[in-house]
Amino acid sequence: MVVISACVVSMITFPMNIAEKLRNIMRGRLKAWGTTMARRKVWNREFADGRWDYIEHTPGDCIYYYIEKYCNNGSILDLGCGSGNTGNELDKKRYGDYLGVDISDIAVQKAIARSARSGRTDKNSYFASDVCAYVPHQRYDVILFRESIWYIPRRKLKAVLDRYRKFLKESGVFVVRMYDRHALADQVVLIKTNYDVIEEYLSNHSKDIVIVFR
Ligand SMILES: C[S@@+](CC[C@H](N)C(=O)[O-])C[C@H]1O[C@@H](n2cnc3c(N)ncnc32)[C@H](O)[C@@H]1O
Fold first, then answer.
1. Mind listing the pLDDT tens digit for each residue in 59-91?
2. How far is it between the farthest Cα atoms of the chain?
3. Best residue among 134, 148, 150 to mutate for probing ligand 1, ranked by most atoms within 8 Å of CB
4. Which domains, from first to last, does the chain contain?
5. Residue list, ligand 1 pocket, CB within 6 Å
6. Which of 11, 43, 109, 196 has a CA 20 to 30 Å removed from the CA of 49?
7. Of all protein residues, whose CA lies closest to atom 12 belonging to ligand 1?
8. Are 39 and 130 in contact (CB under 8 A)?
9. How far is residue 203 from each of residues 36, 53, 63, 112, 133, measured CA to CA in Å?
10. What distance in angstroms lies between residue 88's CA and the mean position of ligand 1's atoms?
């Protein structure tokens, strides 16, 4: 009896696991290769169903030191900003203005609501757009890709960075954070080959990397 029930359970869960894996593969493919509309739909669904809730609270993350160090109390453009962690966890006294751009309008709505709750509407603004198409309206001290460079198709990355470079102030920098420097080794090589690296942080106890360049 026990053997039969174990078999029945595995017959049910096996196809469910496969279906879940296939769904994840499809989501990954859509995020990388889909149209802007298809990508927005996938990200919106994930932000709405709580899949990304865990990134909402990241105080003390290594990225804040680098953003605050290079922004000179000035302007920050956060590309792929998510639901508002960066704009609300940065030390409020250490920056002048912050604009977060994200493909997901659900994430952007959450970020706007969070900035209102934390009394930062005077400093923080948000805009829903695909970063591959977004055109800034001013120059920035820091242009940030925090766990978002992965989603820029590899073949477009240099063109995207070159285009945004025109919106850095003279002393401005890109700050890129990735939680897995091995999985993103191609992107790291592209950055190191084509740009001036000013500072690099490699964590000793995780695969985190932060690269500051222009
Ligand atoms: C892993 S989350 C990181 C969010 C946040 N930067 C953080 O570190 O917590 C990646 C974010 O990039 C956004 N994103 C992905 N592709 C994008 C694109 N083409 N344009 C704008 N945002 C994009 C997603 O909606 C998501 O909010």
1. 999 999 999 999 999 999 999 999 999 999 999
2. 74
3. 148
4. 2-52 (no CATH), 54-213 (3.40.50.150)
5. 43, 55, 80-82, 85, 102-104, 107, 130-132, 146-148, 151
6. 11
7. 80
8. yes
9. 33, 24, 12, 31, 32
10. 16
pTM of the model: 0.91
Q: Are 67 and 141 in contact (CB under 8 A)?
A: no
